[in-house]
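Q: Make up one entry.
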Amino acid sequence: MKIAIYHNLSSGGAKRSLYETVKRLSNRHEISVFSLSSADHDFCDIRAFVKSHHIYPFQAAKLFDSPFGRINSIIRAMDLQRLRGINETIANDIKNEKPDLIFVEPCRFENTPSILRYISEFPSIFYCHEPYRVLYESLPPRPYFKNKSKIHQSLNKIDPFLHYYRSLAKNNDYQNIRKANKVLVNSAYTKNQVKTIYQIEAEVNYLGIDTTKFKPLPDIDKSDFILSVGSLTPLKGFDFIIRSIALISSNFRPQLVISSNFSNPEEHKFLQETATQYHVDVHFLDGISDEKLVYLYNTALLTAYTPHREPFGLVALESMACATPIVGVKEGGLLETIQDHKTGRLVERNEQSFSLALEEILSSPQLAYEYGQNGFREVSSKWDWDTSVRNFETTLTKTVNYPS
C-alpha cells in the first residue's frame, strides 16, 4: 500500500507514536511523508524509514510583547490563513503521487490540519490525540496569568481581535476534522470528547509502548525519589503532586524529580516557589534522553502522574513497562491504563487521598514490587506497539477498501 503521511508535530507523545507506527509500517508499505519546517523532525526521527520526506517552509509569525499583545490574535489568525494556503499546495503534491491512503496527524497550530479540506477524493484517516483543548477547557489558575486582573478579564470579553481569532480557530478545527473519512483516537475518554465536541463517531486505536526500550534494567537499586514526567505546563498538575508530597512526614518525605520535554518558564518558577513554600525537595530535568528517562523510571520508588483530563497518558504505561508502580488521578485516559490496587493506585484529585496512596506504596517495598511486576506483565501482554500497529493496519485496509 502507498501511504502518504502528513504531520506538523512537536516533540512529545504524539510524535513518539508516529515514529513507532511508521517504523513498523515501513516493512510492508511504501511511505511518503509531507511536513512543515515548524515540526520537530529530529525528535523520534522517522526519515530513515520512509521512501521520501518533504518539508515545506512555515514558521509562525513573531508575536508582540505588552502593551501590543492584543495584536497577537490577528497575527495568529493570519498564520491560520497562511497554513491553509500551504496545505492546499501540499495536498496537490500528495495527490500527484496517487497514494492509496492519506494518514494525517495533528498540527501544532491548527490541531486538526486544514489539509483534510483538500484531499476528499482520497481515503483519509486523522488520528486525534486530543480535541483542541485550549478552546474548550479552562486552565488551572496560576498567579502569573495576565488575565487574572478584573481589568484584563473585562478587556478580553470585549476584545474583537481575540473573539475573531478564537472563533476562526474553533471553526477551522471543527470543519477540518469533519472532512476526514475516519477519525481514530487513543482512548474511550477521547472518543467521548470527540463525539461531544465534533459530533463524530471516532474509533479507538490504543497506542503502545516500546518494550525493548522501556523495560526493567538489571542490577538497579531504587533511589529515594518519586518521579513525574510531562511538559512543564499547568495542565500536567505538578503543583498538586508537590502539595500531596508535603503531607508526608518530613522525616519520610522523598525528593520529587520532574522530567519535562518542554518547560514554560513561568510555570517552572511557580512550581519552584510552591516547592519552597511546602518544603518539598524538587529537582527539575529538561530534555533528557530516552535512556536517561528509562533509568529514572527504574530507579524511582514510584511514578506520580496527575495531569488534568489527560486524553491517554503514555507516562503511566512507560512506568509500568519498567516495573515501577504508578499513582495517578482517577480521570481521563488513566482510567483505561492504571488498575487500582493491581498496577498502582488510582485516586480522586484530592491531596489527602493522593498523599495516603503515595505513603501506602512508599511504606511497603513488597507492595511496590508486586504492583511493579503486575504493571510489567500488563504492558507486555496488552500494550505493545506491535499489537497497536496491527490494529491500525486493519483499519487502513478497511478504509481503503470501503466503497465510496
